[in-house]
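User: Study the shape:
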Amino acid sequence: MTRLKIAGITLVGTLALGFAGLASWEPILASAGTAPPARIYSAEIIRDRFGVPHISGKTDADTAFGVAIAHAEDDFFTLQDVVAMSRGRYGAIAGEDGAKIDYVYHLIDARGTASREYPKLPADTRALFEAYAAGLNQYAADHPAEVKLANLFPVSGVDVAAGFALRQPFFFGLDSVIGPLAAGEELRREHGPDIPGFPRPSLDDADTAEDSSPKQARTLVLPLGEDADHLGSNAFAVAPQKGGGTTTLISNSHQPLRGGVAWYELVVESGEGWHFAGANFPGSPFPFLGHNEHLGWTNTVNTPDMIDVYKLELDETGTRYKLDGKWRALESEWVTLPVKVGPVVLPIRREVLRSAHGPVIRNDNGAFAIRYGGIGKLDQLDAYYRLNKAKTFAEWEGQLARMAIPSTNFIYADAAGTIAYVYNAAIPARPEGVKADWRNVLPGDRSDLIWQGAVDYATLPRLVNPASGWLYNSNNTPFTAAGAGSDLDPAAFSPLLGIELKQTNRSRRAYKLLSEASVLDRATLERIKYDNAYEREGYVARLFDALDRIPRNGDLAEARDLLASWDFTADSKGRADAIALLMIRDFMSADYSNKPFPDVVEKLAAARDHLMTHFGRLDPPMADLLRLRQGALDLPMDGGSDTLRAATTWDVAEDGRLSLKHGDSFIMWVEWQPGQRVASRSIQPFGAATTRPRNPHYTDQMKLFVEHKLKPVHFWRDDLLANASNRQVVTNARR
């Protein structure tokens, strides 16, 4: 054999070994997780005619075990993504996008937070998480062909808790700080506290102020399934005196229709008194919103000033920072991020830095530390569990008063006729009297600016049983929530809270329609919930004012005139609805995200070109453009990017149609009528089995969804058994 052949064989062998190493190093390095303590669980899963699982067990832990099994039966694909995120391994599945999440996982010390705080949780809460982990492990063991990543299972309760620690800050915009800092871009802030030289805009000025949009620029959206540029939800509560004797709670959360923060509907029940109908996200043993027999609640995203950024002064080595005149060493840790590229997984080394303030990011402009509400805490796991089992308003509010749940508005109603709105937020307890511009980047060399803990619950905006008889929130300021004469006065709240003064089109429409109604019965509320109109105010007014300035001749004249004729509704009845739909979203996004206002001429030209290219006309029916698609089903949609009937964002398909991906998602309508037990109805955009194309419940709710219809929730066991389609007992006992 010639030397050339030998060299060639050696090279091929070396490449083969290298390829094998890149294909196998990650699961070997990761190794298997730790299984929960050995215990036998047993749960019954009864599915109704739409495949929605009703999970019951002797204990709460048994039920949580069943929750994991039921959810895995419907969407093990997404559950594995969430598990991989909770172990810093998502890049091995999702490549570069997954590695971004893994980096943040290490940066905010999600695993360290879980490891420190999880053992402090009450025993029954930990038992719930251990049981849920056992359910995931059981399903993975029973279905090895479905497992995406070697050594991903078993998982423990700490692993599940780490997923919570990772995801919770993103609901109040942590990604919109990390992204610009990592890219070396400017942070765009909303309003801040009143300090000399930095006046706070008034509520009346909030929509026209240059910095009136949510606090930070949302330039990096980590692929957790949440499109942060288009956060949105609607929530309504009506007291019996306004609702014709009925107490009503409407949950209308706008989440992505697929992915790690898409809603999954379920009903849970146990022999220990846990009985709740609602929805959770993948990776949770309990629902996050919904109702029990006595009470219910729903949530909308709020945008308080939860995050502070500090610029550090580093020494010549770049390894120390100055604090109170002394040099301190930056905490440094090197981590390996797995990045899947084709058939191999590359190991990418990254340094993670922290200071006394929190995580640290270095860019060309220096080193910046981040501190945010709820940092290093995990007691929301216990608080949500207790909320599920609360029986009275006092019990329920007692859990919120712990300030354990870092953010989101809560709209509440109960069987006694109480309705309430709480602007829930673990807002940093910034020291009064300290001279600092909290809205901008702070000096990192002063320890008096490193706050500890959250403000008192009593300082937050809160309304209980307003005279109007109704409450709502549509991601707007808390100072419009209950109507004239019932709303809170913004002057009564400290500017250090950084409470947003924002309005949305959904808020303007809800406020107007609720205020005009003499009775908020079911029919009236349905008209409000599915309203698809815009007010010519805020960014909509700016858009159409700019449109009026476009010359009435030229190549855009026809498109301009068509859009100018729009009736400001997204009901797919008007000739201009399609072109308006294409136009509105980017202007809404700029307003929400405090980005530069788009060029109207440029956007109008793009909308015209899109319609002419794919439809051959400027005025196709909007329903031909906006679609709800899953598998072989392709249905027309109504609504718009900031209407109460929300069709917020979409993917543009090859045929030019807009395939909805974010907007109205899980809707739940709860009613307590005099002398009757609680009843509810709900709907999902697709079906219960969101990633199982062969399952009959893959698309079986779609037609109802597009027709503005709801299906019954079988909360009570007798009703469930009369409408059951499948019944099974699941256990981890050896068979």
